[in-house]
Protein: Ribosomal RNA large subunit methyltransferase J
Amino acid sequence: MNYRHAFHAGNFADCMKHALLVLLLQALARKPAAFSVLDTHAGSGRYDLGGTQATRTMEWRGGIGRLLDDPPPGLPPAYLDLVRQAGAPDIYPGSPLVTAMMLRPQDRLVCCELHPEDSQTLRALFADTPQVSVHARDGYAALGALLPPREARRGLVLIDPPFEQPDEFSRLAQGLATAHQRFATGILAAWYPIKHRAPVRAFLDSLRDSGIRDIVALELTLRPPLDPTRLNGCGLVVVNPPFGFAEAALPALRALTHLSPDGTGAATITRIVEE
Ligand SMILES: C[S@@+](CC[C@H](N)C(=O)[O-])C[C@H]1O[C@@H](n2cnc3c(N)ncnc32)[C@H](O)[C@@H]1O
Structure:
């Protein structure tokens, strides 16, 4: 448990993940029926961009900092509105806060965070929000234990692991298989890093062979993924994408290519398995 998200909050990868999360939640909110969100690797919920950890890397400057200074056309306006409302550029909201801000009275959010300090911070953040519950437990194990959601038949599962372990891609594929087994109609979204192509290709191939249907992969690279020591881009795999999601996501991803320092950024949406 060495990973602390505060070093990376608001970087390009967070912007990509959270802009797409907003689009997924907007799609769920189109129907009045309640939905439930399970955030398996939730983090601490809000990050002080002037704090020691964020200041050490300054990653947010190349991410949300640039988007706020000069918003590129195509970015979902709701994402930037929400980030500003959460306190940017002083504070950046993590995925549980982004979600909580978009819940309606009938919806629920369940968060898992294993780091003791971060789960405590998250619990304090939502102490007065009965719609949100926080578990200090293993998010992968929660996929088997907490799905299908009790409160609603519609919902989203976000799996956003730290990729500290060498076998994280296979744990992620296994996590998606478990989530799909327990909640076949749910929208499942899983984030992954793109350092170089080979591990990503193997991960997507394993999903092709998994028997799960209706999968798309959305990817943003800031530069060609050739140097395996750098985070050159990231992706979000979505199982059961809502109607119209890919069409709404493409302009958002294209807008985020503006974050490429040398203009070699690229955005792609690939269908991995047909419906
Ligand atoms: C990439 S960060 C999450 C960021 C958050 N989803 C967001 O977008 O704001 C990954 C988080 O997972 C936590 N973590 C690591 N292993 C875990 C596990 N097995 N179960 C739950 N949380 C875990 C880490 O402490 C870290 O806070």
